[in-house]
Design the sequence.
C-alpha cells in the first residue's frame, strides 16, 4: 500500500517535471501539438465520464463546438474577457447538454447512438445555416487571445505565443482532470457505474437513474465545452467543419484504443495515437486508413483497449484444462465454488 | 385493510393475458408465499407491484395510498424492495461497495457532499460503510466484503442480493426465488435468515419453487395458474387443494426420449 503510494507519487512527480520541461525542448510546431493533445485529453476524459452510464455520445464533438462558438461570440461580439468566458462557455455547453439530455437519456444503446448524433449534428447545422451570429460555413474568425497577465517586476505573459498558451492549457487540463478524477472515485461515480452494470437493480434500491444520467451528460458536456474554449483561442477561428462526424470518429478511435474501464485508459489512448500520428506525418494521406485498421484490430484483439493488455498477458497461458468425453459417458466435474476463475487484476 | 392491496390487477402483453383480475391482500408482518407453475404470472405480479411494468387495469395500494404507475425508484423510496430471479448484483464492485450503492436512499447527502472531502463528508462515508458491513453480517457474508461480487460463489451471491435490498430498509420485501440453485444446507440457512427478517418486522412476499421451503416458512400461501389466483390459505389447505395439485401434476410428464 505504502510502496504503491510512493511509486505513484514518484511517477506523478516525473510526469510533472516532463510536462513543465517539455515545451522548452520542442520546436514551436510540436509545442502546439502537445497543446492540442492536452485539449484532447480533456475531451476523451469527459467522453469517458458519459460512457460510465453506458452511453456513447456522438454529440460530444458538437458539444466541444458549442463551447468554442460560445467563447468566440462572448469574447468577439460581446467583448468579454477570456478569463470570464472560459467557465461561462463551459456552462453554455452544459446548458445545451441539459436540454439535449432530456430526450437522450430516455434512449438506450443503439438508439442513444443515433439520437445523440442527430442532436449534435442538428446543432452543427444551425451554425452553418445562421450567418448571424454563427458566421455560416466560414465560421467565426479573429477570436482574440486570452488577455495578457502582467507580472510586476517581470515581463507580461503573452498568450499569443505557443509556450505560454501551452502552460495555460496545462493548468486548465490538470484542474479539469482533478475534478473529473475526484468525481469518478466519489460515490456519484460509483452510482453511475452501478447504473451501467444493472439499471433495474439500481432503480429498485431507489436510485433515480434518469437524474444521474442527465447529471453525467451535463458534466461531460461542460468539460467538452471547456476543451472547445481552449481550442478556439489557440486556432483563433472556429468553423462548423471542425466539429463534424470525421472528428467524432477520431474521438471514438482514441477512446476504444485506450479503453474506458479506467480513468487513465482514454488518456493513454489519445497520447499514443497522437505520437503515432506525428511519426506517420510523412504518410499523412494514409492516416485515416491506419486509424481504421487500429480500430478494427483493437476491437478484435484488445476489446478492453490498451489498458486491458497487462491483464490479458497475465491471463495468457495461466490455466489450461483438457479432458475428453466418450459418447454416452456421464461425467460430473466437481470442485469448490469459484476455485477456477480468472485472476483479478 | 392490509399493508399491500392489489385489486383487479390485469396485465396483457399483446394478446397474452399474463395476469388476470388478480387480488391480493397482505397484512403487515406477514410472510406470504406465492406459488404457481412456470409462466403462471408470479414474476409479472412482482413487476407490477414494483413499477417495472404498468398494469393494463387495476390498482396497487400501499399503506392506503395508490402507487399504481409510479416509477421503480419512487416505489423503492416508499419502502418496497425486491430481489430478482437471476442473481442481480453490481458485478464489478466489491460486496461492500454493492451495499454502499444500495444504501443510496438512507444516506442522501446531497451531490456536493458526496463529491467533497470535508471531515463531515468523511465521517458520513465511514458511517455508510459501517452500516453496509452490518448488513453483510446479517446475511452471514461479512468475510467476503472486499471480494468482487461477480466472482463470489453462487450461494454468497444470492445472500448478497438480499443484503442489497435490505440496505433500502424496506417494510415489504419481495423475494423472487431466493433459494433457487442452492443445495440443502444453503437453502436452510437462507430460509432461516428470511424468517429472521420477518421476525424483525419486515413483511415478506416470497415466490419460490422449492415447495418444502415455502410450506415450512409461510403461514399463508397464494397459488396462481394462468395469471389467476386459484387458491389461498394455510400450507395444509394449499397442499390438499385440488386445483393446485392439478396445476402442478396435471400434465403428465411423458418420457419422450428415444433409446439410441
Sequence:
Amino acid at each position: 500500500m505504502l510502496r504503491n503510494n510512493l511509486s505513484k507519487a514518484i511517477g506523478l512527480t516525473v510526469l510533472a517535471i516532463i510536462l513543465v520541461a517539455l515545451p522548452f525542448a520542442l520546436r514551436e510546431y510540436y509545442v502546439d501539438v502537445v497543446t492540442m493533445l492536452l485539449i484532447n485529453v480533456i475531451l476523451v476524459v469527459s467522453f469517458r465520464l458519459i460512457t460510465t452510464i453506458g452511453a456513447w455520445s456522438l454529440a460530444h464533438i458538437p458539444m466541444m463546438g458549442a463551447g468554442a462558438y460560445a467563447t468566440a461570440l462572448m469574447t468577439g461580439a460581446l467583448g468579454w474577457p477570456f478569463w470570464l468566458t472560459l467557465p461561462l462557455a463551459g456552462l453554455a455547453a452544459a446548458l445545451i447538454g441539459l436540454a439535449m439530455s432530456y430526450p437522450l437519456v430516455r434512449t438506450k444503446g443503439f438508439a442513444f447512438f443515433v439520437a445523440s448524433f442527430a442532436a449534435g449534428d442538428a446543432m452543427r447545422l444551425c451554425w452553418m445555416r445562421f450567418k448571424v451570429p454563427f458566421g455560416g460555413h466560414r465560421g467565426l474568425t479573429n477570436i482574440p487571445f486570452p488577455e495578457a497577465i502582467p507580472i510586476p517586476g517581470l515581463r507580461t505573459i503573452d498568450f499569443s505565443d505557443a509556450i505560454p498558451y501551452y502552460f495555460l492549457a496545462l493548468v486548465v487540463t490538470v484542474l479539469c482532470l482533478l475534478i473529473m478524477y475526484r468525481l469518478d472515485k466519489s460515490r456519484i461515480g460509483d452510482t453511475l457505474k452501478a447504473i451501467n452494470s444493472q439499471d433495474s437493480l439500481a432503480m429498485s434500491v431507489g436510485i433515480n437513474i434518469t437524474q444521474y444520467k442527465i447529471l453525467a451528460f451535463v458534466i461531460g458536456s461542460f468539460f467538452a465545452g471547456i476543451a472547445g474554449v481552449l481550442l478556439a483561442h489557440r486556432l483563433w477561428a472556429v468553423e462548423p467543419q471542425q466539429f463534424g462526424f470525421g472528428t467524432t470518429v477520431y474521438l471514438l478511435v482514441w477512446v476504444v484504443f485506450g479503453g474506458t474501464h479506467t480513468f487513465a485508459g482514454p488518456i493513454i489512448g489519445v497520447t499514443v495515437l497522437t505520437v503515432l500520428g506525428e511519426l506517420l506525418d510523412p504518410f499523412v494521406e494514409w492516416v485515416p486508413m491506419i486509424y481504421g485498421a487500429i480500430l478494427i484490430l483493437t476491437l478484435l484483439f484488445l476489446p478492453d483497449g490498451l489498458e486491458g493488455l497487462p491483464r490479458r498477458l497475465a491471463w495468457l497461458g495461466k490455466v489450461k484444462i483438457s479432458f475428453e468425453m466418450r459418447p454416452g459417458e456421464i461425467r460430473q466435474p466437481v470442485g469448490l465454488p469459484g476455485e477456477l476463475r480468472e485472476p483479478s487484476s | 385493510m392490509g399493508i399491500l392491496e392489489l385489486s383487479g390487477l390485469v396485465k396483457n402483453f399483446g394478446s397474452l393475458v399474463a395476469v388476470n383480475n388478480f387480488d391480493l391482500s397482505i397484512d403487515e408482518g406477514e410472510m406470504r408465499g406465492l406459488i404457481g407453475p412456470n409462466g403462471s404470472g408470479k414474476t409479472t405480479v412482482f413487476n407490477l407491484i414494483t413499477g417495472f411494468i404498468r398494469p393494463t387495469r387495476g390498482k396497487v395500494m400501499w399503506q392506503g395510498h395508490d402507487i399504481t404507475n409510479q416509477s421503480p425508484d419512487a416505489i423503492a423510496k416508499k419502502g418496497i424492495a425486491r430481489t430478482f430471479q437471476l442473481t442481480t448484483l453490481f458485478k464489478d464492485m466489491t460486496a461492500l461497495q454493492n451495499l454502499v450503492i444500495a444504501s443510496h436512499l438512507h444516506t442522501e447527502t446531497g451531490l456536493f457532499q458526496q463529491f467533497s472531502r470535508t471531515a463531515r463528508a468523511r465521517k458520513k462515508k465511514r458511517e455508510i460503510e459501517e452500516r453496509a458491513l452490518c448488513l453483510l453480517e446479517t446475511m452471514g457474508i461479512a468475510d467476503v466484503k472486499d471480494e468482487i461480487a461477480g466472482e463470489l460463489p453462487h450461494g454468497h451471491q444470492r445472500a448478497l442480493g438480499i443484503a442489497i435490498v435490505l440496505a433500502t430498509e424496506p417494510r415489504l420485501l419481495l423475494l423472487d426465488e431466493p433459494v433457487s440453485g442452492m443445495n440443502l444446507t444453503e437453502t436452510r440457512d437462507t430460509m432461516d435468515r428470511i424468517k429472521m427478517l420477518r421476525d424483525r418486522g419486515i413483511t415478506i412476499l416470497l415466490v419460490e419453487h422449492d415447495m418444502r421451503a415455502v410450506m415450512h416458512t409461510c403461514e399463508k400461501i397464494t397459488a396462481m395458474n394462468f395469471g389467476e389466483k386459484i387458491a389461498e390459505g394455510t400450507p395444509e389447505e394449499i397442499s390438499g387443494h385440488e386445483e393446485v395439485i392439478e396445476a402442478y401434476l396435471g400434465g403428465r410428464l411423458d418420457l419422450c426420449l428415444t433409446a439410441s
About this structure: The CA atoms of residues 62 and 326 of chain A lie 60 Å apart.
